Each structure stands twice: as C-alpha cells, then as structure tokens.
Automatic annotation (TrEMBL):
Catalytic reaction(s) noted: L-rhamnulose 1-phosphate = (S)-lactaldehyde + dihydroxyacetone phosphate
Keyword Cytoplasm: yes
EC number, as in UniProt: 4.1.2.19
Biological process annotations from GO: rhamnose catabolic process
Pathway: Carbohydrate degradation; L-rhamnose degradation; glycerone phosphate from L-rhamnose: step 3/3
GO cellular component: cytoplasm
HAMAP family for the chain: RhaD
InterPro entries from the UniProt entry: Aldolase_class_II_sugar_metab, Aldolase_II/adducin_N, Aldolase_II/adducin_N_sf, Rhamnulose-1-P_Aldolase
Gene coding for it: rhaD
Native species: Pectobacterium odoriferum
Entry superkingdom: Bacteria
Record function comment: Catalyzes the reversible cleavage of L-rhamnulose-1-phosphate to dihydroxyacetone phosphate (DHAP) and L-lactaldehyde.
Name this protein carries in UniProt: Rhamnulose-1-phosphate aldolase
Record Pfam families: Aldolase_II
Domain Class II aldolase/adducin N-terminal: 11-239
Length: 274
C-alpha cells in the first residue's frame, strides 16, 4: 500500500467527503474540496509520486499560487466512493512556478482532472490567504439542502439572509459573525463565478450560490465542515419554522449584540440593522 494513503491529508479528505455525503450535501458527483498543503506536508511521500507528472494548463494565470501544493477532489468523482478508492477520487497537484498551469503528482489513477470548480477554489484560496495571512487552507463547496431551499424564499441580500441564520440558532453569530456573502445565479465551473465568489470571500467565510449550494472556508477541514454544518443546521431550523407558520418570537438585536460582546466577535453591522 502506498504510504501517502495513510497521510493526514488523504485521510482527512476521506473523512470530510464521507461526512459530507452522509449529510446529504453531495449527491452523485456534487461538491468539491481543496486543501492547500505545504512542501513539508508532501515531501515524505515523494516516493509515491508519478515519475512523469502530467501537466495541465489553468484557465487563467494564478501567479499568487506559484509553487503551492494542493489536494483536491476529482472532477466527476462521487463523494460516496472516495473512501473506497481515494487514489482515483483525489489528486495531489502543484501549481507551476509561473502560475499558468499545474502538475499532477498523485491520484486520478483512472485519468481525469481536478474538480471543474478549480478556478473558483484557486481564486478563493488567493483571497483567503491574504485576508487571514495564510491561516485559511481549505475551500469546501457542497449542495447543502436547506440553505439551497432558503435561497428560493428569502431575499438574496447578505444582511437579511445572514440575520435569518443568526436568529435560527444562537451559535451562528459566534461561528460566522462575518455573515454570508451571496452571488447572483451563474453558470458553474467558470472563471466568472470564481471571480464573484472570491470577491465575496474578501469579507465573508461563507458564500451562497443561490439555487445551487454554499462555499465555506477555514484553516482545517474540520473548521470548514463545521462552518457549513452550523449554517445548514440553522437553515433547517428556519425551514421548519416557516412550515409551522413562521416566528412568534426570536433573538433580538440587543441580544445579538450582547452575544457578540460575550464571545469577543464583531457581528456584521448591516445584519444587526435589519
């Protein structure tokens, strides 16, 4: 067995994708995950690398990611199968020194490419590297059922959508005080939606793709998963509240402010004013 299969990053991707599928967020080949690695992370497993790594061009240059390593889910791969065959479902790649392409060092044993949302992931990685001074290393996208459902009935406004989720569960303001960014509906797998998503990632760790899914980020796979899980749980609560006739009482603005002070976070001001 290849040593890389027992590495923390391959095992982490197996767990994350399995958990996401079990949650019902990633039907068929839906969803994608990328984790930025360091040279120190991958060096112990060089003996498992392809002797002649395949080269692929990027749809646009990414010089800010020059020489960066990533492990990414593959395009068209089913999350439910990652645990069965991680070497076919995942890919370890390194961006070229000029940022114009990348080389595949491990994975995709039956051929194929990294996720079709690679441009969106890379554009968001660049932004989050800057915003968090390199702390955020994960971009996670999934089709979280209740967040998608709410995108059909709530106004697609960052402040209003965020406020609804904050009121859905007390922990939400603490977990994502920066709120949920929203982009218009766009064709997925394009540089255009990647640009729009990364623009929202400058201000928000969660970005909603209406009628499609959610993007989340964080320093670890657990943190990114937990962020989405928290928002999705609140969305589920609010879907049920609406089915029961709507709110009769809720968390007040004053209580949200007090919550932020207690946990030392700064809530999105626009969401407090709704």
């Amino acid at each position: 067995m290849q040593a890389i299969l027992s590495s923390w990053f391959v095992q982490g991707m197996i767990k994350a994708t399995s958990d996401m599928w079990l949650k019902g967020w990633d039907e068929r080949n839906g969803g994608n995950v990328s984790l930025r690695l360091t040279a120190e992370d991958v060096t112990p497993y060089e003996s498992d690398f392809y002797p002649q790594p395949r080269h692929e061009a990027l749809s646009q240059p990414m010089p800010a990611l020059a020489d960066c390593w990533f492990i990414v889910t593959g395009s068209g791969k089913f999350f439910r199968n990652v645990q069965l065959d991680p070497a076919d479902s995942l890919v370890v790649l390194q961006v070229d020194s000029d940022g114009k392409g990348y080389r595949i060092f491990w994975g995709l044993t039956n051929g194929g490419l990294p996720t079709s949302e690679l441009a969106s992931h890379f554009q968001s990685h660049i932004v989050r590297m800057g915003v968090t001074h390199g702390r955020d290393r994960v971009i996670m996208h999934c089709h979280a059922t209740n967040l998608i459902a709410l995108s059909y009935v709530l106004e697609l406004d960052t402040a209003k959508f965020t406020r609804e989720l904050w009121e859905g569960s007390t922990e939400c303001l603490v977990v994502f005080p920066d709120g949920v960014g929203i982009v218009p509906w766009m064709v997925p797998g394009t540089d255009t939606i990647g640009d729009a998503t990364s623009e929202q990632m400058k201000h928000h760790s969660l970005v909603l793709w209406p009628f499609h899914g959610i993007f989340g980020t964080g320093p670890t796979l657990d943190e990114a998963f937990g962020l989405i899980d928290t928002a999705e749980k609140s969305a589920e609560v609010m879907v049920k509240v609406r089915s029961m006739g709507g709110k009769k009482q809720t968390i007040s603005t004053e209580e949200l402010i007090a919550l932020g002070k207690r946990f030392g976070v700064t809530p999105l001001e626009a969401a407090l004013r709704v």
